[in-house]
Amino acid sequence: MASSLLVCICVLGLSSVAMAASPRKPIDVPFQRNYVPTWANDHIKYINGGNEITLSLDKYTGTGFQSKGSYLFGHFSMQIKMVPGDSAGTVTAFYLSSQNSEHDEIDFEFLGNRTGQPYILQTNVFTGGKGNREQRIYLWFDPTKAYHSYSVLWNMYQIVFFVDDVPIRVFKNSKDLGVRFPFNQPMKIYSSLWNADDWATRGGLEKTNWANAPFIATYKGFHIDGCEASVEAKFCATQGKRWWDQREFQDLDGVQYRRLNWVRQKYTIYNYCTDRARIATMPPECKRDRDV
């Protein structure tokens, strides 16, 4: 193991045998350390000295927050309890995004449900302003009952989405296939709670029941471990020196691939890579071995 990785792990108080997924115990910091409200500040409430917050949605507005800094590569995670009960029409989002017309974006979107129906987790990746790379899964737990961790590992080789350290999606760097990959546009981290009943639940058939408002999502574990950069940066000066650049983080290991396949086989309900009705020709990045 590279000495730089050992140093980073020691600083963070992590185990040196941590899996290639991400640090086992990311450092939790108060919300105000790294984040600021984006809009509707009065719909954000602070709990436990700012170590937890709630976002609320009513028929007038939702709310959201964003990181103070912009980051080029790293590991980013959030612990969230989703809106409980009848949450149809609502979307709770946690994502990274750059700020321009040809933006890059890495999305978690949690689509609300009617009581008794499962939440749907939709992920997407935009590169150079092009998205339409949706994948959808059911979760193997009720995300409204307790906190669960949702994380992104982003380096020059891959973007990995994790739920409680289980990889649910990998987007490989397929530049050699002519596919753009996020590598030179720093991104901010965002989260929001908003109404999307025109599409979110059963394609918009289920509308938001405002009698159940306000809808509340709860957050803690505001973890950022990335290379902070200005929005004009074309590269990160520390690239190649951080733990996420090391060899063991450039691909999933065997255990992680088995977990990923478990998610695909048991919980995946939509994958743009196999939607020939919508996308006639398989996108080049989908042809990567083990990535479909």
From TrEMBL:
Q: Which PROSITE patterns match?
A: GH16_1, GH16_2
Concerning PTM, the database record says: Contains at least one intrachain disulfide bond essential for its enzymatic activity.
Q: Which residues are glycosylated?
A: N113
Q: Which Pfam families match?
A: Glyco_hydro_16, XET_C
Tell me which EC number(s) this protein carries: 2.4.1.207
Q: Which residue range or ranges hold the GH16 domain?
A: 22-219
One Gene Ontology cellular component? apoplast
What's in the keyword line of the UniProt record? Apoplast, Cell wall, Cell wall biogenesis/degradation, Disulfide bond, Glycoprotein, Glycosidase, Hydrolase, Secreted, Signal, Transferase
Signal sequence span is 1-20
Q: Which GO terms describe its molecular function?
A: hydrolase activity, hydrolyzing O-glycosyl compounds; xyloglucan:xyloglucosyl transferase activity
Catalytic residues (positions):
E105, E109
Cross-referenced InterPro entries: Beta-glucanase-like, Beta-glucanase/XTH, ConA-like_dom_sf, GH16_AS, XET_C, XTH
Acetylation in keyword set: no
- Report the subcellular localization: Secreted, Cell wall; Secreted, Extracellular space, Apoplast
| An individual GO BP term | xyloglucan metabolic process
Job description of the protein: Catalyzes xyloglucan endohydrolysis (XEH) and/or endotransglycosylation (XET). Cleaves and religates xyloglucan polymers, an essential constituent of the primary cell wall, and thereby participates in cell wall construction of growing tissues.
Stated family: Belongs to the glycosyl hydrolase 16 family.
Recorded protein name is Xyloglucan endotransglucosylase/hydrolase
Q: Which organism is it from?
A: Asparagus officinalis (Garden asparagus)
